[in-house]
Each structure stands twice: as structure tokens, then as C-alpha cells.
Amino acid sequence: MKTRQILLDHGSGGRLSHELITGLMLPAFDNAPLSELHDGARLDIAGMRLAFSTDSYVVDPIFFPGGDIGVLSVNGTVNDLAMCGAAPLFLSAGLIIEEGFCLDDLDRIIASMTSAAKNAGVTIVTGDTKVVPAGTADKIFINTSGIGLIPEGIIISGDRAQPGDKVIISGPIADHGVTILVQRKGMEFESDITSDTTPLNHMVGGMLSSCPDIHVLRDPTRGGVGTSLNEIAERSRVGIKLYEDKIPIRAETAGICELLGLDPLYIANEGKLLAFVRPEHVNRVLSVMKKHHAGKDACLIGEVISDSHAKVIMRTRIGGTRIVDMPAGEQLPRIC
Amino acid sequence: MKTRQILLDHGSGGRLSHELITGLMLPAFDNAPLSELHDGARLDIAGMRLAFSTDSYVVDPIFFPGGDIGVLSVNGTVNDLAMCGAAPLFLSAGLIIEEGFCLDDLDRIIASMTSAAKNAGVTIVTGDTKVVPAGTADKIFINTSGIGLIPEGIIISGDRAQPGDKVIISGPIADHGVTILVQRKGMEFESDITSDTTPLNHMVGGMLSSCPDIHVLRDPTRGGVGTSLNEIAERSRVGIKLYEDKIPIRAETAGICELLGLDPLYIANEGKLLAFVRPEHVNRVLSVMKKHHAGKDACLIGEVISDSHAKVIMRTRIGGTRIVDMPAGEQLPRIC
């Protein structure tokens, strides 16, 4: 009998990841906040509503156009907290470093984390550093966990999408994943694409002030927009209908995806969000988003429909309809 | 010029770790909770006092007598929170898994974490799983972060040791480190030593109920009792005097340390604590500790003295005095 093994796909954010989490972790750890399967847990401590989130960053290469593993590790957890509707406050940083790693690179990464924390308005209050022998880790891995405070009256959850809700995206997709891929492949062609990594909490704060009744927020990182929408559809037991011609993507990003046979719907973003809002709130929310740098290209890309099979479908540019399924395999390991 | 590189010693918990943290991290991240250099940060959120802690576990081997990386990762963060005087409530789990890792081993580790969380009375509410290509990590690394609630009136801090305070240890030292070492070396001799990993929060809860004015709590993990005491002496600007004949150690553990030329004072523990209390509180605290399994061998091992040079000294068995310095080098990488 073949030994059951962990595959790269188990970390893809796609179907196998989902099976690992729902098949192994959820039944074992068995509790309500975890079973929400959100970017972070919503907790009640002595009557106060907190969000708590964790993420490990293993991106390769560690430095790339538009950012590095340090800024990614801060923005990523800041955004996970913001997707719970929380104002991020405090971060932890756990570093696993390979023996022989260049101290100047560590200096650069720590400086990036410091500046990213300042931009986001959070404080890195506790940390841990482990060094492992050369060859037992690749350069550096960073875990950040974070705590945020959820304002009263805010209920953001993956199970709140309702038929009629409009789906907003904050800007063009797939830039982070394509940036990493271009770097890794050492592609020769000219490319100005940079990672979109950025903190979304200030924009989310503005959106929630203007419209407290946002139903779902999600940053489509690993697995991209396609995976995030499938997760939301499943949790809310609704269908989602997308309009391909509305989904923003830079021409250069789209070109590289086409060249490599990659579907940009499944490519990671690190500074984008999906928002599900009632139709009557769309204009208000969009106008707040457009005032922020992180949302200046925000637009409507779809809507929620009734569908007990929880499918995501897309009206294509040429007028057909295709199913946007949960991806089965890993497209890009170590993308974040 | 030689490139500045990360050495194993930077992760030892000893002098180079200390230099990395105080020389690079502290000036960069620059904030009060971090600069306390405690096992966790003490935070004030909307008038509520929380403890927040993080630790990455990279122990090798991942299964060992008395525990595994899963139970270690839960107990370790539970204990870090308890050392802040907090009641641990919620944990996150961030897994970095090597492609090809055996799923049955993952099952075992998740089951260990589940049972450890139950024993400690905490809930694992959020998580993240990354899979990296074979050869870019060694089997599995686990980060846990945790949140705990600090009861009113409790102020535990590394800078509160005062001349006259008595130093208590909760039981025999060096069992965890020696267990790992014996496993790793594949030593042939018979050994019944097992890791001491255990949650300390229930005992700490009892200690604080009986004596809220405990000055310092610290679990002497990486770097052992010798390193922890040096950190406390430095933070509090006091001297610490130890009595070698009072420090509990199992004969077998001591024997292996002697055989290998290791000083048990610098060997990691995973289920022990040091408590600094006023002389008039010693008996009360000891009697509570002895009622708990984790503290049944608790005893006095030293006292705090005035010393502006913040030295830790030890009265040896034969009546001499030696300085117990901060260790310069790494004795055992990947010990936790």
C-alpha cells in the first residue's frame, strides 16, 4: 500500500487544502470560531470582540519587485484581521532562519517589517527566532499572528452572502502571483509588474464607517479570486455569477498568464479584497474605496444568486457561461 | 570581507540570540511590550489586560519519549502565557510541512495538539498550513501563538526581582534537552528519561490565587535555567545566588550530562518554571505547587541579592563559588 503523503497541493489553497482542513483539522480541533473557516477567528473575551489570525510566509524568492517576505508577512496578517472587520492592533513575529543566512538580508527584512507595521498602524509586540542547521529550511520563513478589535455592530462572515448581493473587487487581479512567477523563472522578457502587497485595513475602516452592513470581506490570496469565491459560495450556500469582462486585470499580467497557460482567477493577490454588499450600498462603498490608493480601481464584478449547489459561474467575454470550480491542483508553490 | 551570517548560536537562546534581539529587533520594532523581553507581551486593549505570545517549534526528532512536536507546540505557548500571569484562552497554529511528509504522522501530531489543548483548557481557533517542496524544510515546523487574560492586580515581569526574593524551581531540570539529545544521537545505553513537557497554567493559576504578589515567573526552556536567570538578573539589575546542592536533577539526567560534558544548567526544560517570591510567601507558594503534578518536586534553589553587575553566582557542592554566565554558544540546535 502506498504511504499517504503530504503533496504540494495540500498547501495550494485549493481542493486538497480544503480537504486537509475540513477532514483532519476541523474534526480534531472542533470549535465554532475555527469552523467558520474565515481568514481569522472572531473571539469574545470578557465581552470584547477580538479577531485573531495567523499566517506563515514561505515565499520564494524572498525579495521581489514591490516587496519582500517581511512586508508580505505584515500586510498579510493585517489584511486577514481587516477581513474580519477588525481594526488590527498587535502582531507577533516568529522567524525560522537557516544557518548561514546573510545578516544584511535579515536587516533588510526587519526594516521592511518595521515600515510595513508603521504603514498599517500596528505594533509588533512579541517575537521568536529559531535558527536551524543549513539545509533544513530554505533561507527564512516568517509567521505573523495578529490581534484586532472588531467594532460594535460589525458582523463580517463567509456565510453571510445573500442572493442579490453585489460582488466588488478592489482592483486588478493576479499581480502578486505573476510577479513571483516571473522572478522565479528568471524570465528574460521585460516586465514592469510588481506585487500588489499593501495593507487594506485603512480602506476597510472607511468602508465600514460608511456602510456597517457589509456581508463578506475576503482577500483572495493563495488560490486567487476563484478559490475565495468558491469558499464563500459553499459557506453561504449560494451561487455566484461573475462577468468576465468586468474583472480588472492589467494587460501585461493577462499576457503573461496567457503565455504560461495560467488562469488569472486562481493566481494569488496580496493587496486586493472582495466585498459582498447589498445592491443599495454598492455606490456608497465603491465611492469610499476609490478614495483610497488600495481601491482606486475598485469595481463590480458579479452578484450572488440562489443556487443550492453553491456554484460559481462566469459569463464569458464571448457570451458563454463557464463554471469557475475550486482548483484541484497547485499552480504555484511558495507564492506567499 | 567576510559576509555577516546567521549562525546556529543566534538561535540558541544564549548570548548571540540576545545580541540579535537587542541589537536588531528591538531598535527596529521599538515598543514597550516588546522591550520587556518577556515570554509574551502584556497588552492593554480597551481596558482589558491581555498576554500575547508566539513560538515556533522546530524540534528534531519530531516524536520523542514523553511527547512530540505537537504537544510541545501547545504546552510551550500555554506556558509562555502563564509566565505573564495570564490564563491562556486561545491558540493559533501555523504549520509548515515538507512535501512528502507522512500523513499518518500529521494525524498523530494533530491528535497530540488536540489532546494537549484539552489538558491545558485552551482552544485552537485559527490556523494556516503551508506545504513547501521536498528539501526546503525538514519534515514539519509548527508556530503557535496565544492569547490569555491577565487577572486584575497581577503584575509579573522580568524586571521585578528584588533583593531578598527567594527563587523557586518547580522540579528537576534538564530532562527535555537530554531526552532529545539521547534520541538524536541514537545512544545505545538504556535510558528512561522522558521530556518534561506539560502545561503549567493550572498550577500558576493556583499559585497566583494563593499569592497574587509573585514578582517573576519564567519557564527555562531554550538556554535552560542558567540563561533564564541571567536574563532576569539583567532586567532587574540584581544579582542571583544559587545553591548547587539544592537544584533538583534526576541522577540519570545528571549522569548523561556528565558523560557528554554538558552543563544541565543550560539544558532546555519544557515543563518547569522559576518563581521569584518574597521570603514571607515562600511556604504558601511551595505548598500550592506541591499539590500539582507539575510542581510536586518544587523547592527553593536560591535568592536575589544586590549586585549592580547583575551576576548569577552559584555556591558549589564543595563550598566554592562560580559565576553562572550567559552561555556564549549553542549546545543543542533544534531542541524545541
CATH homologous superfamily classification of the largest domain in chain A: PurM-like C-terminal domain
Distance N to C terminus of chain A? 34 Å
Q: Helix amount of chain A, in percent?
A: 25-40%
- Largest sheet geometry of chain A: 7 strands, mixed
> What oligomeric state is this?
homodimer
CATH class of the largest domain in chain A: Alpha Beta
- The radius of gyration of chain A is 19 Å
Order of helices and strands of chain A: HHEEEEHEHEEEHHEHEHEHEEE
**Widest sheet, order of strands of chain A:** 9-11-8-12-10-13-14
Low-pLDDT parts of chain A are: none
Domain tally of chain A: 2
Percentage beta strand of chain A: 15-25%
Q: How many H/I helices of chain A?
A: 9
Mean pLDDT of chain A, nearest integer? 94
> Architecture of the largest domain in chain A, according to CATH?
Alpha-Beta Complex
Shape of chain A: globular
Structural class designation of chain A:
alpha+beta
Instruction: Give me the CATH fold name of the largest domain in chain A.
Output: Phosphoribosyl-aminoimidazole Synthetase, Chain A, domain 2
Query: Quick one: which chains have the greatest interface?
Result: A-B, 78 and 78 residues
Give the tally of β-strands of chain A. 14
